[in-house]
Amino acid sequence: MQKNINIKNKRARFDYEILDKYTAGIVLSGTEIKSIRLGKASLSQSFCEFNDKGELFVINMQIDEYSHGTHYNHRPKAERKLLLNKGELKKLQKEVTTSGLTIIPLNLFINDRGLAKVNIGLARGKKLYDKRETIKERENKRNLSRIKKNYNG
Residue 109's Cα: distance from chain center in Å? Predict the structure, then answer.
């Protein structure tokens, strides 16, 4: 079993411009936390959504079934409730409804007390030209570091 669990959503920063970040708890069953501790989870294609009662849920988060689980095993793509305080939930809901922003899970980790937490980000979707700009900046940075390495070495 791994000690440091930090499952990242690698597409989030490429597809979205992150405006604000929050750390939320997540409601899990026994087999779900065991799978996360084994590193068997994925945040790609996942997003967060409010229900009618104003509760925040993460949708499309993949947590693989626990290998030693019996018929009590969980569903891999079930909706999972996120735990934030009431003020943060109201602020996020207001931003989503008025500005048309999206809430995206950025990474899933286990804190020092052994609890699963999710870093979520209030995000605005990038256009195609923004994505091209990101790729161009990344290539320029890589080329610059390569030139520095050759010059110093």
Answer: 10
